[in-house]
């Protein structure tokens, strides 16, 4: 199955561990293409996520066109959140952008264009 449409992700960052990085570059203007709606910010908002941080997050993926769910981290991997290093390409570029400057426990709704997800042709999962 291929998806050449915008993705909508609901993100919840549960844990944030800082890994020190040096020589970080500023993100390019692609951040403007990711639409971010903050749904919840906890009272305590330190530290905020940055490139090189190790994140632990649950997220749900929906197709923006018809709202159908294509991924849920709570039903995959025995319900464990996904661990990844932010900004190094371990997740799609749109998630790297969308999860930058998040607080631990913050919830966001983000819309990611195909160019920052799986592209025009989409992602084909082979079984």
UniProtKB/TrEMBL annotation:
<keyword id="KW-0325">Glycoprotein</keyword>
<dbReference type="InterPro" id="IPR001179">
    <property type="entry name" value="PPIase_FKBP_dom"/>
</dbReference>
<keyword id="KW-0677">Repeat</keyword>
<protein>
    <recommendedName>
        <fullName>peptidylprolyl isomerase</fullName>
        <ecNumber>5.2.1.8</ecNumber>
    </recommendedName>
</protein>
<dbReference type="InterPro" id="IPR046357">
    <property type="entry name" value="PPIase_dom_sf"/>
</dbReference>
<keyword id="KW-0732">Signal</keyword>
<dbReference type="GO" id="GO:0003755">
    <property type="term" value="F:peptidyl-prolyl cis-trans isomerase activity"/>
</dbReference>
<dbReference type="InterPro" id="IPR052273">
    <property type="entry name" value="PPIase_FKBP"/>
</dbReference>
<keyword id="KW-0697">Rotamase</keyword>
<keyword id="KW-0413">Isomerase</keyword>
<feature type="signal peptide">
    <location>
        <begin position="1"/>
        <end position="23"/>
    </location>
</feature>
<feature type="domain" description="PPIase FKBP-type">
    <location>
        <begin position="52"/>
        <end position="127"/>
    </location>
</feature>
<dbReference type="Pfam" id="PF00254">
    <property type="entry name" value="FKBP_C"/>
</dbReference>
């Amino acid at each position: 199955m291929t998806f050449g449409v915008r993705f909508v992700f609901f993100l919840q960052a549960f844990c944030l561990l800082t890994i020190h990085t040096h020589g970080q570059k500023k993100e390019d203007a692609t951040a403007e293409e990711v639409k971010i709606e903050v749904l919840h910010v906890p009272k305590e908002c330190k530290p905020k996520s940055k490139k090189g941080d190790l994140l632990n997050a649950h997220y749900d993926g929906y197709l923006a066109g018809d709202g159908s769910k294509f991924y849920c981290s709570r039903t995959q991997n025995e319900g464990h959140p996904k661990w990844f290093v932010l900004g190094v390409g371990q997740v799609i570029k749109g998630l790297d952008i969308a999860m930058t400057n998040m607080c631990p426990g913050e919830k966001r709704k983000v819309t990611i264009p195909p160019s920052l997800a799986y592209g025009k042709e989409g992602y084909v999962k082979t079984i």
